[in-house]
Design a protein that fits this description.
alpha/beta, single chain, membrane, 13 helices, acyltransferase activity, 11% strand, two-stranded antiparallel sheet, transmembrane, Glycerol-3-phosphate (1)-acyltransferase
Length: 319
């Protein structure tokens, strides 16, 4: 009986070894693992390159400071040469990676104004906007950034030269009263991490920006970049990770993508200053204006393939 069992086992083993698929199975597994690793690497390569470009920009500022022996504050016009180099680099990236276009720049007031925008997974589109604005108009636009940005090592000088600030309410009012533009994303990091291809605004009860506009007596200008959520997306978005973010306030979810989709930034009509409106009312009105701008120019739900195909279309969506 044992002899018969051994014979059957031997025959089965022989037949399995002769089966071509099993013979090459180790190679198939190795190739599959390599392909998966390459895909993962490609998905995260562009976000890492964006970070490296930020550090390259910071290095440019360091070299510029040493070669020109500047002692002036980073916000002064003495740094415009460095800004020109940095904005040119980012503008080239926007042109070649996303075919970047800016529409509605005529809607920006000549004086101060508060720009509100939808926050993508990576606000690279906003960087393109700042670059294009400086190259075309030589205008400064201050930006309220999340506090974790100022904790990133080696980027302090870049933040100062490009007019990033933590954004206390009084700071924002002072910037506007001094005649500058100011950009704020009321959704902030929460919107970056947990919004999706539906382009839903996640503002909760944010109305501080509206109070800033009222106190500074300036208009609010909505702004949206078409396909920004198709360019970069967030990996690992779950209820648990959302709970972790709300508890720790740390943006630990990694972005992926860098797909060369078409980016078009649209600047909407300003909401004029009204002394008779309250901050909650103005916040609601601003949210409706931005959502309408998104609905007008954005395919919802967003689609990466369609956004890629727009790179080959010369005709843009009608306003």
């Amino acid at each position: 009986m044992l002899h018969t069992t051994m014979t059957y086992s031997t025959c089965l083993t022989y037949l399995m070894e002769e089966w071509m698929f099993l013979e090459y199975l180790p190679y198939v597994i190795i190739c599959s693992v390599v392909l998966v690793f390459i895909n993962i690497l490609l998905f995260f390569t562009i976000p890492v390159c964006v970070l490296l470009l930020s550090y390259l920009s910071s290095l440019v500022i360091f070299i510029y400071e040493r070669t020109h022996k500047l002692k002036e504050a980073y916000s002064s016009k003495a740094w415009d040469g460095a800004r020109l180099i940095i904005t040119f680099m980012w503008d080239r990236l926007g042109r070649y990676l996303n075919g970047y276009e800016l529409h509605g720049i005529e809607n920006l007031p000549d004086g101060p104004g508060l720009i509100i925008f939808y926050h993508g997974a990576i606000p690279i589109d906003y960087g393109y906007f700042l670059s294009k604005l400086f190259l075309l108009k030589r205008r400064s636009c201050y930006t309220v950034a999340d506090r974790f940005v100022f904790k990133l090592p080696g980027l302090k000088n870049l933040s100062a030269v490009m007019w990033l600030l933590p954004g206390t309410q009084q700071e924002c009012v002072n910037v506007l009263k001094n005649g500058h533009l100011l950009g704020i994303s009321p959704g902030g990091v929460r919107e970056a991490l947990f919004s999706d291809k539906s382009y839903k605004l996640i503002w909760k009860n944010r109305k501080g920006f509206a109070q800033v506009a009222i106190d500074a007596k300036v208009p609010i200008i909505p702004m949206h970049t078409q396909n920004v959520r198709e360019g970069f997306r967030i990996f690992g978005r779950t209820r648990f990770t959302k709970w972790c973010f709300e508890s720790l306030r740390v943006p630990f979810l990694p972005p992926y993508g860098g797909f060369p989709v078409k980016f078009r930034t649209y600047i909407g009509k300003p909401i004029p200053y009204d002394p008779n409106i309250t901050a909650p009312e103005l916040a609601t009105k601003s949210k409706a204006a931005l959502q309408a701008l998104i609905q007008r120019h954005q395919q919802i739900p967003g689609n990466i393939y369609d956004a890629l195909m727009e790179r080959f279309h010369t005709k843009k969506k009608k306003p």
